[in-house]
């Protein structure tokens, strides 16, 4: 099976702009989670989607939003970019097994630089 | 809120020695504890995981232990090799489909 893919791999934006990142999960996986990774903060949970519904959200401002489509592909959007949004954005997909959170498989990430 | 503390932040060992990384979680509802290895410039990769109904799990040179009472879990790597050098993340997850990661441990294995 193909792994999790993310596009684009690299992005350079300026403050105030907005950006949309895309994630395609492993075929058959219906849960997609998004994380922000920075050197000082590690992996910070943004949100999780399952069957087009956001089931959980981390402690990020409303400028960060996401959605999931019927084919399980997911996008996240960051509006009014700030310098501090520069980070590696990772998505991970999983095949939830009942009430247990199953193994997450990560994509290669999108490196966002805000100038 | 939920929190996972991971120690140490940096660990340097000689090749062949053992390495131990420890994590503490706060949410008593956590029931799944994965460990990820992230090499420079690459995505995190699952190396081992453990569920709350198991106290210990081993896979070749890697083992994980879980103490639910103390809310501690640890990663043990024996006979370390230079290719074990990477950043290791612990994580704790609940049935609410939210995974909280530790801050990471940078492991250096000196040849």
Notes on the structure:
The complex is a heterodimer of chains A (115) and B (111). In chain A, 0% of the residues lie in helices and 52% in strands. Chain A is mainly β and 115 residues long. In chain A, strands 2, 4, 5, 6, 9, 10 and 11 form a seven-stranded mixed sheet that branches. In chain A, strand 7 (64-68) and strand 8 (74-78) form a beta hairpin. Chain A is globular, with a radius of gyration of 13 Å. In chain A, 37% of the residues are buried. Chain B is an all-beta fold and 111 residues long. In chain B, 0% of the residues lie in helices and 57% in strands. Chain B contains no helices and eleven strands. Chain B has strands at 4-7, 10-14, 19-25, 32-38, 45-51, 56-59, 62-67, 72-77, 86-93, 99-101, 105-110. In chain B, the strands form two sheets. In chain B, strands 2, 4, 5, 9, 10 and 11 form a six-stranded mixed sheet that branches. Chain B has a five-stranded antiparallel sheet with strand order 1-3-8-7-6, with no helix packed on it. Chain B is globular, with a radius of gyration of 13 Å. The mean pLDDT of chain B is 93. Chains A and B meet through strand 4, strand 5 and strand 10 of A and strand 4, strand 5, strand 9 and strand 10 of B.
Number of strands of chain A: 11
Computed Rg of chain B: 13 Å
Please give the alpha-carbon distance between the first and last residues of chain A. 37 Å
Mean pLDDT of chain B: 93
Percentage of helical residues of chain A?
under 10%
Return the string of H and E elements of chain B: EEEEEEEEEEE
Number of helices of chain B: 0
Q: Catalogue the unreliable spans of chain B.
A: none
Main beta sheet of chain A, described? Answer: 7 strands, mixed
Short description:
Chain A has 115 residues and is mostly beta strands. Chain A is built from no helices and 11 strands. With 111 residues, chain B is an all-beta fold.
């Amino acid at each position: 099976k193909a792994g999790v893919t993310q596009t684009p791999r690299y992005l350079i934006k300026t403050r105030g702009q907005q950006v949309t990142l895309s994630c395609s999960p492993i075929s058959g996986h219906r849960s997609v989670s998004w994380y922000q990774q920075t050197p000082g903060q590690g992996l910070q949970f943004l949100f999780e989607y399952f069957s087009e519904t956001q089931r959980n959200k981390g402690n990020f401002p409303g400028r960060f939003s996401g959605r999931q489509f019927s084919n399980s592909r997911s996008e996240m959007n960051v509006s009014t970019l700030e310098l501090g949004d520069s980070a590696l954005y990772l998505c991970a997909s999983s095949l939830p097994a009942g009430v247990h959170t199953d193994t997450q498989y990560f994509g290669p990430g999108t490196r966002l630089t805000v100038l | 809120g939920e929190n996972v503390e991971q120690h140490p932040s940096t660990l340097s060992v000689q090749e062949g020695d053992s390495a131990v990384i420890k994590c503490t979680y706060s949410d008593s509802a956590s029931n799944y504890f994965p460990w990820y290895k992230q090499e420079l410039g690459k995505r995190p990769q699952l190396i081992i995981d453990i569920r709350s109904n198991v106290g210990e799990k081993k896979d070749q040179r890697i083992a994980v232990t879980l103490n639910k009472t103390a809310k501690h879990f640890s990663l043990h790597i024996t006979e370390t090799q230079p290719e074990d050098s990477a950043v290791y993340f612990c994580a704790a997850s609940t049935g609410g489909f939210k995974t909280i990661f530790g801050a990471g441990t940078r492991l250096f294995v000196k040849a």
